[in-house]
Amino acid sequence: MVTQANDAAPHEFNPWLHVSSLIENAGHLLGLDQGMIKRIITPERVLEVAVPVRMDSGEVEMYTGWRIQHDTSRGPGKGGIRFHPSVNADEIAALSADMSIKCAVVNIPYGGAKGGVRVDPTLLSRGELERLTRRYAFSIAPMIGPDRDIPAPDINTDFQVMSWIMDTVSMLRGQNTPGVVTGKPLSIGGTLGHAGATSLGVTICTVALLHGLGRDIANERVVIQGYGKVGAPLVKLLSERGMKVVGIADIRGAIHVPGGIDHEVLSRHFRESGSVVGYPGSDTVPAHDLFTIPSDIAIPAALGGVITADIASSMAATIMVEAANGPTTGEGAAVLASRNVPVVPDVLANAGGVVASYFEWAQDLQGFMWEPELFTQRLEKTMHEAFNHIWQRHLDLKVNLRETAIAVGVERIAEATTLRGLFP
Ligand code: NAD
């Protein structure tokens, strides 16, 4: 069950109640009535499923999974599926609400959803992982579909997991159903351009923020936490636009290169060693000191909850762009606000990934593959328009970019909800 405010454990951070309060504040900022605010906060559908899996040993193990559709007033639900031992209903509900806001912020015709199974997939064989995925997909199949709710990869799920889900749903329906998930391989309905789309969106937001603040792009120094699917392409994209990446961290540690990192050298070094640590000519610094490296722009692109009040107080950069999901704690956000550090929030900065998913789904429905140039051109246009709209509204509303983005998302959901009315 998703926790209600009255049942919450005092003093314990609850991501669902945190998101609910952000939506509530946005509703008040917009002057929405309490009935509409409650309607937007409350998830539309919460499905909890038992997932029995026959293990390689012959024993049957039980797992629990969820799929939550938070809001579908603007279109079918959209959101990833994660496999992780800490998954629970409140986390999935919070992430589904984030997706409602994110899709509305970039103005794509989707609502928000999320799913997950409480499991440590590193303990499963490939056969066990496939059986778990297919049984979970079967259990949530009545709720998902190209016109209902479209899952995507998230933590510990990838193109292979998406392929199994697509196949399971296709077998159940007796027809090929590529539009039921995004993040698929090209050969079964994926799209060119998907890899790197999130990083391109982060780059567009970074450049647009610098323009908005009247700052010169050339030689702006950047530190990035994370060198994975989002962080690694960022080094190239930001360098190509004239910025200097001077610090980067991965799970093994952080490096400082005052003269700027060469993305090709780093990519080669990472391929050979499996880490950014040891990049030729770099100083190794403790991972928790990454954000104190002299720099102008901070980009968390790894974990949630890392920009705490402490990290925010000692951060050297004067602007931050959230590539990761939920990297900043409430206290961290308050410290950055008190230091007048502009922050492009995750619901805008990393939305390039869901925009790419939208383009994959549109191509699946059309049965027509776009050229990569068309994909990139449309992605850039969508992200530019989203940033410019949020920037302008933040000047009008006189609140920070995070509050503005959530307010714009809530406003668009409220508009759709009002137009559609209340059934029956
Ligand atoms: P990933 O697993 O490919 O990469 C994660 C990176 O973070 C790795 O380099 C890892 O070494 C590093 N890391 C892990 N723990 C760390 C630590 N304690 N200190 C420093 N670095 C650490 O993940 P990803 O797909 O690049 O996602 C990164 C973030 O971006 C996540 O928050 C994810 O939710 C968010 N995001 C990703 C996408 C996408 O398209 N992949 C889209 C939207 C949001």
Q: What does this protein look like?
A:
The protein is α/β, with parallel strands linked by helices and 424 residues long. The chain folds into two domains: 5-182, Rossmann fold (3-Layer(aba) Sandwich); 197-349, 3-Layer(aba) Sandwich (Rossmann fold), CATH 3.40.50. Helix content is 44%, strand content 17%. It contains 14 helices and twelve strands. It has helices at 15-30, 34-41, 89-105, 126-140, 159-173, 197-212, 231-240, 263-273, 309-314, 330-338, 346-349, 352-366, 372-397, 401-420; strands at residues 45-54, 60-71, 77-84, 112-118, 149-153, 221-225, 244-250, 253-256, 283-285, 297-300, 319-321, 343-344. The strands form two sheets. The protein has a seven-stranded mixed beta sheet with strand order 9-8-7-6-10-11-12. A five-stranded mixed beta sheet has the order 1-2-4-3-5. α1 packs across α14. It is globular and about 55 Å long. It starts with 14 loop residues before the first helix and ends with a helix. The model has no long low-confidence stretch (mean pLDDT 96). The site of nicotinamide-adenine-dinucleotide (NAD) has 21 residues, from β7.
